[in-house]
Amino acid sequence: MNTLPQIRLKPGKEASLQRFHPWVFSGAIASDTSGLEEGQTVEVYAHDHTYLGTGHFQPGSIAVRIFSFQQQPIDAAFWESRLLQALSLRQSAGLLQQAHTNMFRLVHGEGDGFPGLIVDVYNGLAVLQCHSMGFYRMRELITHLLLKLPGIKLRAVYDKSAHSLPFPARPHAQDAYLHGQPEEWVASEYGDQYYIEVEQGQKTGFFIDQRENRRLLRQYAAGRSLLNAFCYTGGFSVAALRGQAAAVTSVDSSQYALELCDKNVSLNFGQQAPHQSLATNAFEMLNQIDQQYDLIVLDPPAFAKHHKVLSRALKGYRKINRRAIAQIRPNGILFTFSCSQAVSRDAFRKTIFTSAALAGRKVRILHQLSQPADHPISIYHPEGEYLKGLVLAVE
Questions:
Q1: How far are the Cα atoms of 203, 256, 264, 266, 298 from residue 260, in angstroms, in the given order?
Q2: Distances from the Cα of 295 to the Cαs of 85, 217, 224, 245, 354, in angstroms?
Q3: At what angle do helices 76-92 and 139-148 cross, to 10 degrees?
């Protein structure tokens, strides 16, 4: 007998769910939801009582995140099956068979049927990040199921959801180990070693999504001078040094990030590497580089968290890319990215076109980049395609 609370939609509001889009917006709901708890599992029905899907309820604009479009028991076996499917996808991509790479994203939200949950694996450590109370309330179960997964050999599970949960839930959430003990975590990516700062670092501790793009940078680095703007913990800096860059400058406004960057460089290349780090504003520095660099990486934080600030975000991307294109050395290479979900691939490319035109340089596209296979995008949820990148040759 069905015991889940039911939410009924307004007439004509079922179309997006019938196309398997996993979000139900609050304006589409006809039912009174005042008695529902944040994170509660609910069933969603059309106005004519046709079943549409099952998901987690939360107050706010996105009122329900659908995780199943089939009416079925939602129990531990259901979630274990989902995790095994996610693991199988990573196995098919070869991520569990690489001796030189032991960090990957195991669960990527809507792309893996876990809307509101991220799980990253770092050489025996799994880090959870919940973006909805539904999965936050399930974190003990998720931990139990993660420890059962074959082929990963987890020593610890860390919950890092205190700052990613919707605001009403944040005061009650604390980051903590759910299994195992703190260690000095070090993980490998194509042979490069990185310290994973789980407790104090951004996101889950590292930006795994740029793995393949860092590998590509190696191919262009030999003999070049790199400016890695917005460097965070120096992933692109280490990749460039591995690719025999002549000199690398890492820039970030955070002294803490630069300390981690320097540690990562030293971990891989010792104290004598041709590397310097500068704690300064990358926007301001891009006004002063005056053809010092023939390889530049622009990987800024998300300028647009939502569409309300999209116009301002595009101006920010245009400004930094115009400066970089104008001042890069002739025949230089620019790797430029946007990780803003609200910025479409087309809008980003048009912004870079405008930047190049304003800079007055001849620019060609060498590569169009995205997120790797362990950050899959549901074809029914295009919002999951957040990482966009271009590699440009500037004459």
A1: 15, 7, 6, 10, 19
A2: 39, 9, 6, 9, 20
A3: 50
Report pLDDT for 126: 98
Q: Which residues of the chain have pLDDT under 50?
A: 1
pLDDT for res 313: 84
- Edge-first strand listing for the sheet containing 247-252: 275-279, 247-252, 225-229, 295-298, 332-338, 388-394, 363-369
What DSSP state is assigned to residue 4? S
Q: What is the DSSP string of 338-382?
A: E--TTS-HHHHHHHHHHHHHHHT--EEEEEEE---TTS---TT-G
- The answer to whether the pTM exceeds 0.90 is yes
Length of the chain: 395
**Kind of pairing, strands 275-279 and 247-252?**
parallel
Domains defined for the chain, CATH in brackets: 6-68 (2.30.130.10), 76-185 (3.30.750.80), 207-394 (3.40.50.150)
What's the pLDDT at 188?
A: 97
* H helix runs in the chain, sequence order: 15-18, 76-92, 133-136, 139-148, 211-221, 235-242, 255-269, 282-285, 310-327, 345-359
Closest listed residue to residue 325, CA positions, set 277, 299, 286, 278 = 286
Residue 113, helix vs strand vs coil? coil
Residue 175: both structure tokens together: 């980051």
Instruction: State how far the alpha carbon of 187 is from the alpha carbons of 102, 124, 197, 235, 387, in Å.
Output: 6, 9, 11, 12, 22
Q: Which residues of 174-196 are buried (b: 16+ CB within 10 A; e: fewer)?
A: ebeebbbeeeebebbbeebebbb
